[in-house]
Amino acid sequence: MKKILLFIPIILLFNSCALILDFQDLPKPIGDYSIGTDVFDWEDKYRDEWFTPNKIDSRKISVQIWYPAIEKSDSLYPYLDYPELRIEAIANQINQSKNLVKPVTKVEGNSYYKAKPVNKKFPLILFSHGLGGYKTQNMIAIEALVSKGYIVISADHTYDANITVFEDGTYIDYSYNILDNVPKEKFWDVRLPQVNTRAADISFMIDKLQLMKKHPVYNLIDFNKIGVFGMSTGGTTAIVSSWNDTRISACLNLDGWIVPVADEIINTGIKIPFCYIGQEYWEGNPLNYDKLEKFYKNCSSDSYLLKINKTKHFDYSDSPHFSKVSRMIASGKNVDSKFAERIGISVVGFFDEYLKGENYNWTEIIINNYETSIQFK
């Protein structure tokens, strides 16, 4: 399994040539709602931290929530918060100078800190990032969802994210010593508890939101309509969460790593609507799609497989949006400047159908623009 670095286009550029990137801001969202956001540090005192040898440690995560807002506040929240810490972590991870990765700190999104929320109920969507990724790595899809009337929450999966920064200034780096270069004989000893920890983060976030009755966002959430999506190992997390937590009603997977999904889940499938959008094939890892096909056949609700030709793994994050040069070097041949936006629109369409009952052909935005094979049952 390749390490998930969502700034892979930058890495390739730095290692290939001395080009200067002018990163684009995130696109304007497709919906009518303005976007508010807030951040929290949460501790699950009833769960031991698997990643540390000190079993007295309890699990702590940093989360961000986005919600439809009445109007914009005067504080635009950064695409990357704590930029100095995050840039240093990225630079260390790719063994480059911090100055070379600073351009990404200038990227602006469309989310406003503590903007006044709309007084209305909305479905809840949880997002899970990839291995070594971060909570805003699919921000285009997140902002598209919120602008169309969803609450979205995401966490930096501590020790599994590139870096997790808490409000008191403390931080935890990605756990290289545990998660990188896992030998074959240790695969399940590492990957199973890793994925279960991530899935428990998803359920814990739902638990916490259900207890936040004094927070303005609580009254916006329709807890009877909950969906989950993730990219890469986040896609693994989405499947396992959907298996474990009956509160989740729809599951979407962006080029997910299916290999670490336990055979019990593969052989049974899930009983809620499922959608997979990803590459035509996983180069060098045929087992990934062998397990996906088996899982798909065993799912008992509406299920989709969309495989887009001539795309690459990192194309299913925000990465293709930022720069034409980075697309030329790091993306698949079929990936254009609108690819990430169109993926985001498809994500909205899937959840519109299965959480809001709005039935329209949301796959067309992909099929009409990219050579795609599709299965549906």
Task: Explain what this protein looks like in three dimensions.
The protein is an alpha/beta fold. It has one domain (8-376): Alpha/Beta hydrolase fold, catalytic domain (Rossmann fold, 3-Layer(aba) Sandwich), CATH 3.40.50. Helix content is 32%, strand content 23%. It has helices at 8-16, 83-94, 98-101, 139-147, 176-179, 187-211, 233-244, 263-268, 286-298, 324-330, 339-355, 364-367; strands at residues 34-48, 58-69, 76-78, 108-113, 122-128, 151-156, 163-165, 171-173, 221-231, 250-254, 274-279, 303-308, 372-376. Strands 3-4-1-2-6-5-9-10-11-12-13 form an eleven-stranded mixed beta sheet, sandwiched between helices. The protein has a two-stranded antiparallel ribbon with strand order 7-8. Helix 4 links the parallel strand 5 (122-128) and strand 6 (151-156). Helix 4 packs across helix 11. The longest helix has 25 residues, at 187-211. The protein is globular. Residues 1-20 have low confidence and may be disordered.
Keywords:
377 residues, alpha/beta, Rossmann fold, 11-stranded mixed sheet, two-stranded antiparallel sheet, 12 helices, 13 strands, 23% strand, globular, disordered N terminus
